[in-house]
Amino acid sequence: MVFQKYALFPWLRVIDNIAIGLEFSGVRKKRRLKIARHYLDVVGMSDFAGALPYELSGGMRQRVAIARALANDPEILLMDEPFGSLDAHTRILLQKELLNIWQANRKTVLFVTHSVDEAIYLADRVVIMSARPARIAEILEVDMPRPRSRAIPVFGQLTDRILQRLEQEVAGRLQFLTHHDRFKTEKRLKA
Amino acid sequence: MKKKCFFFLVPMVTPLLLVLIWFYAASRIDNPVILPKAGAVLQLLSYPTADLISMGSLFSNIAVSLVRVLMGYILAACVGIPLGVVMGYYALAFRLLNSFLNLFRPIPPLAWVPLVMAWFGIASLATTLNIESGSAYILLNNLKYSMIFIIFIGGFCPILTSTIHGVTSMNRTLIDSARVLGANEYQVFRKVLLPGAMPSILNGLRSGLGISWMCLVSAEMLPGSISGVGYLITHAYMVASTDIVIAGMISIGVVGTVMDRIFHYIETQ
Which residues on chain B are in Cβ contact (under 8 Å) with A12? Predict the structure, then answer.
């Protein structure tokens, strides 16, 4: 699973961080470092194997976090707002990179986000959830071919549709609104 | 170059000033019992292996003290760190033990002396192992349980407190990450909690060492103590050798500082 922040172990080097899941599973040192190296290259951080997390920028850390999650070869990759704490430019960059990585192994990814734009750009399927209680409000199929462009009309239409739906959710629950109400859009990238 | 010289000399100004004042005051007071001449003390310090009024040399006493402190301290660390980790991680353990242990914290180690005497008497490693004579006896008889216990009490609380703090102030996300990556409970403890809490633990170990070293003097005032720097100080005073007293105090300070520096070095690694 990839978290939003503070998930890398600060006392381990990048390569050891990636290998840690394998270490927990009892894989021997030589082999797990080899696997870790592979995923390090996959996320494009080959030069930073020996670095410590505090030396890296936010985008780099998240890349390492993704590598760490992938190194375990999970059935599903869970991502909880992984790009939420990054600046806009890095965010867009990492979205593209994530798609590239995903094209290669086609794992099912469950990606939680607040950004409608991000949801439509990445997902095959968008799941809109209601707030309090969190239930699935609607599921939308996103049929656009990749690589997707934000310039095409379908993108805008989908955005509008989702935003309207979210507004409905807000309006329906207006009397219970507090500062902390949030609406989540989930999407799934199908394998 | 100039800056380096400056940096090195500035910390030496205050001690030099103190020594100068000492020289002056000693010659004014002119009573070696109240304030011995600095020269006398320096002479004592420069012959650390000379026998001092048949109380053993400065060196051997310091060595004995160090061994005692290390034993009590290592014991405190071996009990304090695992207990601290468990208490920090399991809320139940914390609630069970915390208030109880907090009751003991304000009690200064010195206050334990009478009780410790009643419990341990002058038993030492030698008595338990039934060694009656010989060089082994001399060595082991010096390591009395009563003193080690007092030193243990001194070092235990800071180590425990900072271990608990280190564990509880760890980011939950890190522990969650470990679990999600497939770590079992033991692995979480060893590979995540311990390294994560290590800065705080080391901090506590450092204070614990300082306090243990300070407890030494109280510990060595116990009856049955026949060596050690604390013993040296209290008994030298009784024979009006204040110069030995001061020499002893200086050596206590120096050794304490050296230990602290070593710790500092370990921390930065």
Answer: 195
